[in-house]
Specification:
Layout lengths: L8 H9 L4 H17 L5 H29 L20 H27 L3 H20 L15 H22 L7 H21 L1 H6 L5 H5 L1 H25 L4 H4 L5 H13 L3 H28 L1
């Protein structure tokens, strides 16, 4: 059950923004920037504006998720996890729509500023990244709000979107913004970041599997069922570890880079908890542990690459 919270506007907006999800949004930016430093193309302005854009897009996605789930009825009294601002009455739907609009505009301004710093007058790169930015904005909004039908997050496609936007696009896009070049080997850490971010989503979806199923929110966990969703979780973590080892061996880095493997222990602990309990509070804790592990992984590997 959710806890009641006094109506304070600032608190309501911070609640809806779900600040605890922001480390995950930053992980791919930090990793891509570390790879850029290893390649000798790091730019401080690109890092700062990339982080700002990613954070605003994540907040936009969280606001849209709060709004969309409230409109669909998924966020009822039986739901476990954090209090939702619209469903609990802390914010009205109209206020949330205005908040989404302002956050989307801020993300667009930050993104365009990022492109100016990264590319100057290179119109071809501008066009490609404007299209990618538009896709990111659309994906952030339509995850639970949808356009012309059910949101894609309600059809089991959220995992694919998270893998692409928090992994491949986040890491490789950041690397390209710094260096205007890519290497084939770069796809390995990008895939790892995406796999770990998808594991975070899977913990969330397993936690909410029963309430989601009752309300027709057909996440991949609902489609698989809990037992197979847990097997899927272990596959995500195992594949991430394997790809990391391949990358570290292929591209020798200092010991700081290898220290990214320390996250294997908390990730394993979170996976065991996911396998053994249905307690919502414990699973929420494991969700946070998995997200923070992803951030630590990215920081340590980025540091190792920068020192290489």
């Amino acid at each position: 059950m959710e806890h009641t919270t006094p109506h304070r506007p600032l608190h309501a907006w911070l609640l809806a923004a779900r600040l605890r999800t922001l480390p995950l949004a930053c992980a791919s930016i930090l990793l891509g920037s570390g790879m850029a430093a290893q390649a000798g193309g790091f730019q401080g302005g690109v890092l700062l504006l990339s982080l700002l854009t990613a954070i605003l897009l994540q907040v936009l996605s969280n606001l849209a998720n709060d709004y969309g789930d409230a409109q669909s009825g998924v966020d009822d009294a039986s739901r476990t996890g954090p209090v939702r601002a619209v469903a609990s009455g802390l914010l009205t739907p109209d206020a949330m729509r205005r908040g989404m609009l302002l956050t989307g505009l801020a993300a667009a301004i930050a993104g365009l500023s990022l492109l100016f710093v990264a590319f100057g007058s290179d119109l071809r790169s501008w066009l490609v990244f404007v299209l990618l930015g538009a896709a990111s904005l659309l994906a952030a909004i339509t995850y639970t709000v949808g356009l012309g039908g059910k949101p894609y997050g309600y059809r089991g496609l959220g995992d694919v979107a998270v893998f692409v936007f928090f992994g491949l696009l986040g890491v490789l896009g950041t690397l390209y913004l710094h260096t205007q070049s890519l290497s084939g080997l770069a796809i390995l850490p990008a895939a790892v970041c995406g796999l770990l971010a998808t594991a975070v989503l899977n913990v969330n979806n397993v936690r909410d599997i029963h309430s989601d199923a009752r309300h027709g929110k057909m996440t991949l966990a609902v489609r698989l069922g809990k037992r197979r969703a847990i097997h899927y979780h272990w596959a995500l973590l195992g594949t991430a570890l394997l790809l990391t080892l391949v990358y570290l061996v292929w591209l020798p880095v200092p010991w700081v880079g290898w220290s990214c493997l320390v996250v294997a222990k908390p990730l394993y602990d979170a996976g065991r908890t996911l396998s053994r309990t249905e307690d919502g509070e414990q699973l929420t804790g494991m969700l946070k542990k998995t997200a923070l592990s992803t951030l630590v992984y990215s920081l340590l590997l980025a540091a190792g690459l920068a020192l290489a």
